[in-house]
Amino acid sequence: MKTDKINHLFDINFKKIRPKELIKFFRLCLKYHSRLFDDEFFRINFSTPEKFLNFVKMFKNNIYYALLGKDEKFAGFFYLYETKKVPNGFFDSKVTFCICRPYWGFGSYAIAKKALKFLFEVMNVRKLSIEIVGENSYAKKLIERLNFEYEATLKKECFKNGKAENLYIFSKFNPAL
């Protein structure tokens, strides 16, 4: 484990993607696609400029870079979807994290924990839900470590690489509320 990777994890920022950065974001997704996405997700959402633009159009106001250190090294991104307003200026949402593979294991927890703080304190999220497709034990352990609670399993709800998979749903409420 390199020391610079650990040091960067103490300085994590999130930056909303703006229209002028879309080309840069697309290039980063192409460059890191094998480190960010499973093959099917990449094929459906990022394999051509048209598919990428459709993805961005759906989530344009809710995509954030995860940047590490002063040099703002790209470490992944997250996007919010199925957001709905709730009373007192808060909202509920689902989130998907895409963390670059070099940060899996020792960095994904730090990045996700900082992202949760950002979502709850800055973005005013009341309830955050995460869905896991299939038997991804690492993702489940990470989500449980972040104190998400298991809500439900939807049997054979999704397809991954042509195979029917269960969908596991976890949620966490804003601890300040």
> What would CATH call the class?
Alpha Beta
What is the name of the CATH topology? Aminopeptidase
Oligomer state equals single chain
Report strand order across the widest sheet: 1-2-3-4-5-7-6
Protein traits:
Aminopeptidase; globular; 177 residues; 7-stranded mixed β-sheet
Describe it.
With 177 residues, this protein is α+β, with helices and mostly antiparallel strands. It has a single domain, classed as Gcn5-related N-acetyltransferase (GNAT) (Aminopeptidase, 3-Layer(aba) Sandwich). It is 35% helix and 38% strand. The protein contains 6 helices and 7 strands; from the N terminus they run αβαααβββαβαββ. Strands 1-2-3-4-5-7-6 form a 7-stranded mixed sheet. Strand 2 and strand 3 (73-86) form a beta hairpin. The radius of gyration is 16 Å and the shape is globular. The N and C termini lie far apart (37 Å). The mean pLDDT is 82.
Task: Compile the SSE list and pairings.
Blueprint (H helix, E strand, L loop, with lengths): L2 H6 L3 E5 L5 H15 L2 H7 L3 H11 L3 E6 L4 E14 L3 E10 L8 H14 L3 E9 L3 H9 L3 E12 L2 E11 L4
Parallel strand pairs: 4-5
Antiparallel strand pairs: 1-2, 2-3, 3-4, 5-7, 6-7
Brief rundown of the structure:
The chain is 35% helix and 38% strand. The chain contains six helices and seven strands.
